[in-house]
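Note to self: keep these together.
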Amino acid sequence: MRLRWLIPVITSVSLAHASQVGLTFLSEQNPPVNYQDNNQHAAGFSVDLLHLIWEEMSEPQQSIQFLPWARAYYITQTEPGSVLFATSRTSERENMFKWVCPISTSNVVLIQRKNEYQDLSSQAALKKLTIGVVRADIAEDVVIAQTHNKIKLFKARNIEQLILLLQSHKVDMIATYEPVFYTTLQQNGIDPANYPRKLILQQMTDCYAFNRATSDNVIKKYQDALTKVRHSQKYNDLLERYQMLNFK
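Structure:
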């Protein structure tokens, strides 16, 4: 399995330009929603959608910095001008950011190895399991909430490391976004049939999350542009290219 995406890379244009317009855009490696392609260019549905938003606003394309999720999540909470995507919007996170929504909806699921059975029928059974998650990812929050913190978690840095944990039997199952997991398997030449879905935990709405210091005027401009884009033919064309995702 190829271990790519371990070094943060800045794509498109320099961060100097991003600072001039007052926003720094952060993302992570989560194909097909957002990722870097083989040429280290920003790609994915949320990236393409953001380009359409900038086009609607008559704004130039800006930089997108790819970082491990936990680091990007912390930066967006603490540094004014930061924007993180795609970020799941939950009641717990509601007041941590300002939101421009929606990008798409995705299922947080439990994945297991083929021909294995994991007992989820009781709290006693849950205590025997170890679940892999990406550190600070929404799947971690969902697992903790739904198991009442009765389960052991093994925290990975990114989706590829999470898959390695499952392959190497270091965890019993993993919790992750379904389309991201299966797209990453395909990109790395791994047969998806060997890792079936065990259970849908929750459906999440993904958004652009802005640092709380961002002005309401900026949020309104981005939200208005997103709403207009979602009623355009270009948006319909975009949906056709990403049929593995769900959309509201």
